[in-house]
Design a protein that fits this description.
The structure holds 2 protein chains of 2 kinds. Chain A is of the alpha+beta class. Chain A has one domain. Chain A contains 3 helices and 5 strands; from the N terminus they run H-H-E-E-E-E-E-H. In chain A, strand 2 and strand 3 form a beta hairpin. The mean pLDDT of chain A is 95. The chains are: A alpha+beta, B alpha+beta.
């Protein structure tokens, strides 16, 4: 399923209060905008992620392969927060995603590692 | 009713009411991200002694509608999950709003650590769809 189709499904299913039955917030359009900016800056040799909503209203990107399960979200203050599991245990961190900034090097290294490119 | 710990061998279910929280035969991490109002706990049902039919009957008491699926976990697997400070998750039965109700407790508030825990819970869970 393409990212556009995934996003359309999420916006249709998760744009109202309590979409998950546990008082979830509607998916926040600012979060969607920042994720789209991030995806535009993603190097072409890294496959697009799965998109997944969170009950906090954040849209997230998910890479789940080869023993990794990495979740990346970007909040209102353009702060990227990533967390997940790897064959060696938990991985997590955060970094600023400035308007004109590229994807943080630390995060790119992680994504290349998941894809087996580095 | 005072809270008390679930048995390590107990099975618990996190009811899933949105198709956005599962796919490809797997539970997605979002099913294990708590809502903003209760940011460090997750509602579950202790299903150990319940028949397959009964396992679904308690979901309307949580969300006012029937679940589409559930994420099944064993309590010992949940308690084995710890954050980077060594704090471990727990499962406490509170009996509200039904006698098999429990909460996974001690989830971290930090977003990145919470995503790591949610991903691990999703990895350890088994997706069961309504027949």
């Amino acid at each position: 399923m393409s990212s556009q189709t995934q996003l359309a499904d999420i916006l249709q299913g998760c744009s109202h209060e309590n979409w998950d039955g546990y008082d979830a917030k509607p998916i926040d359009r600012t979060s969607v905008k920042f994720i789209c900016e991030f995806l535009k800056k993603l190097p072409s040799d890294i496959p697009y992620p799965e998109l997944a909503p969170e009950p906090t209203g954040d849209l997230t990107m998910v890479w789940r392969k080869k023993g990794y399960h990495l979740v990346i979200g970007i909040d209102h203050a353009r702060q990227i927060a990533w967390g997940g599991t790897s064959p060696k245990g938990h991985i997590y961190g955060d970094a600023e995603f400035g308007v004109d900034s590229d994807i943080p090097e630390e995060l790119l290294d992680l994504l290349y590692g998941i894809e087996g490119i580095r | 009713m005072a809270e008390y710990p679930a048995s390590p061998t107990d099975n618990v279910a996190r009811y899933i009411f949105s198709s956005s929280n599962y796919g490809g035969g797997k539970v997605k991490h979002g099913a294990f991200v708590p809502p903003n109002d209760y940011p460090n706990e997750l509602s579950v049902c202790v299903t150990t002694s319940l028949s397959e039919t009964k396992r679904w009957e308690y979901s309307p008491m949580i969300a006012g509608k029937s679940a589409k699926a559930r994420a099944g976990l064993v309590v010992s697997d949940i308690r084995a999950i710890s954050d980077e400070q060594g704090g471990k998750l727990n499962v406490l039965i509170d009996g509200k709003p039904h006698r098999f109700h429990a909460n996974i407790k001690s989830l971290p508030l930090d977003k990145s650590k919470r995503r790591a825990i949610a991903a691990e819970l999703a990895n350890k869970s088994i997706l069961v769809m309504v027949a």
